[in-house]
What we know:
Number of strands: 12
Mean pLDDT: 97
Number of helices: 10
Oligomer: single chain
Helix content: 25-40%
Bound molecules: cytidine-5'-monophosphate
Low-confidence stretches: none
Amino acid sequence: MPVTVRVPAKVNVQLAVGGARPDGFHDLANVFLAVGLYDEVTVTPADELRVTCTGPDADLVPLDATNLAARAAVELARRYGIDPAVHLHIAKDIPVAGGMAGGSADGAGALLACDTLWGTNASREELLDICAELGSDVPFSLVGGAALGLGRGERLRALEVGGTFHWVFAMAGRGLSTPAVFREFDRMNEGVRIPEPVASQELLDALAKGDAAALASTASNDLQPAALSLFPELADTLAAGRAAGALAALVSGSGPTTAFLAPDPDAAAEVARALSASGTCRTVRTASGAAPGATVLGR
Length: 299
Ligand code: C5P
């Protein structure tokens, strides 16, 4: 019996970035919000491990052993002495290299799908541990909702969300590499003493109250100047969304997807319409959050 797991995309409502650590990573205070834009990962027993992908960006997804879904299956199988002979199929709706944790979603989805297929019944702690090995954003893809990520972003504390937030996402014509954006952040901050990253209490309160206007006035992304430096045209997309009535306009994570917070679904539809007409982006999607984390479907 195949097992399908649905996994949400994320937007970072706050991304506070510290200086580079000796291991090359950056300490973060990363406020994640899962949004209702999903990849689905289906795992089926097969003769050998293989990955396929369908969806608008499918040709951009690596199908070899570097794919996070494949790496998740291999790591769970290794820990339990299982042969990872499975076919992993990714039905991809989350933009690739977009700063919305699409690859991380596939890693978390494949892990939960394989755990279910193989009946390994790994504990939540062990699944989170494997996720953290796969990448900094992968644990959040498993848990969803809203969470504060500390360390590399992998040490999570669940956050309360008191309402639905309505978002519009503008996908760009090309991707941005996360390591390249962090390198640009380091270059732009050379010689600058960067304070320890901390979550904004006002922002956490706004999330807890479901107050979109307050969330908009506190949302921030320390990677935005670096993303704009590598991809200056994103400034036009941000301006087009603001002009159409978005409460907040920011780069999502390391970009280049841009995220626009709207006060209600009608306003979101208007921002989406204006962004589509602006000619400053490839595609536009609306999605609300918080959304649940990785979920096994149809069981
Ligand atoms: O953890 P993940 O593999 O997703 O990270 C991709 C890259 O992003 C890292 O190799 C590193 O260059 C950068 N990164 C970072 N600090 C973090 C998370 C990611 O510098 N907290």
